[in-house]
Amino acid sequence: MRAFLARRFRLAEKGTDIRTEVMAGTATFLTMAYIIVVNPQILAAADMPFAGVLFATVMTAALSSIIMGFWANLPFAMAPGMGINAFFTYTLVIGMGTPWETALGAVFVSGVVFVVLSLFKVREKIVEAIPASVRYGVAAGIGLFLALIGLKSVDFIVADPVTAVSFGGLTAQVGVFTVGLAGTAWMIIRRVRGALIFGIVGTSALALTVSGLLGAAGREPFAAMPEAVFAWPSLDVFLAMDVRGALALGMILPVFTFLFTDVFDSLSTFVGVAEVGGFIDERTGQPENVGRALQADAASTVLSGVFGTSSGTTYIESAAGIEEGGRTGLTAVVAGLLFLPFMFLSPLLALVPEAATAPILVLVGLFMLKPLTKVAWDDFESALPAFLALVLIPLTYNITQGIIWAFLVHTALKILLGKWRELTVTLLVIDALAIVSLVLAAE
User: Fold this and answer.
1) What is the per-residue DSSP string for 328-347?
2) Percent of residues in the chain assigned helix, strand, coil, to nearest 5
3) Across residues 352-379, what is the average pLDDT?
4) DSSP secondary structure string for all residues of 68-110
5) pLDDT above 60 for 285
6) What pLDDT is recorded for position 276?
7) SS3 label, residue 226
């Protein structure tokens, strides 16, 4: 077995060994394991069964990471993406009233399209067509959206008839959230490996303790112990996707949004992690095996639709494994395998209250603001579309609206400034789809 692994992953050529790769895979898993709980909680808001989505999350993360490891031989782990799960739940299902089965169909269709684009290298044209400032604004806007969802889930922010939103008041749940946020942030600053998952565990323990005291005082608790620890995996959402419904005209833009977010999230992650780890092809200047990596990413999105979760994507947390010395796909395979035991722990993981996951959403939102440093804020022509994406996504509670108006304003500015020659056919097609979406939404 050792000889097979060394040969299959070219360990000697990459200057690594099995022990180093196993440790690196474990580090990557610890930094991204929070998705096992957070993703089912977000999709549960779309009336999807928690246990079913947990199984889908585990299987998507495990199989996708293993595929990435074997197919691309890169230490990049994968799982359902943060941000795109918020679009799935709050924009597509809750906002647009789309049945979650149809939304899963849209995930599957976008994955199939992604596979085709990866095989025929059409993705490069899409990448070239999207203004960089819009990409940065969308990424940061999704980050603010996640933070807003987290704050709203614990009633830190509540609706207000006069001011639209306001502070919800200092409650026991808000107190636990605040302590959890501060504690998890402290671990991140101290570079504790697995800070996010340790934050969830610690905050959950605090929430259970505080809830126990509330119950003893005759007040309503916000967390409770589970009735069981283990359970067989739930197949409630497996193969539940409605592909026919996803192919309806009104689903064109949601499918494109899944595709857009997946493609650019993947590309930005590949580039960023590749730069950190030195996985750059000296001949082309591009990340190593980027073609195969994108094909694995596309396969992950297809698997997501099949198993029953929002789109899978490559995780920036893979950098943690690279820092531990991971240099080959064996790191990704180890990370993927470590997800599998959690498919039997849905009752235990269901006890994690929103007070424990809300801090993670806020911190992930913070991480996603980093692209704003790349926006040329002194160039109004590029800054305005980025700003619109940044503010409209959280303020409209709709990722699609932020993307639509960023694209349309960018195009309008180019035309008004006499720079229409800079507009590509691909971008104009995207604009047309955006206008169609707005018209259909108004009917």
Assistant:
1) SHHHHHHHHHHHGGGGG-HH
2) 70, 5, 25
3) 84
4) HHHHH-----EEEPTTHHHIIIIIIIIIT---HHHHHHHHHHH
5) no
6) 57
7) coil
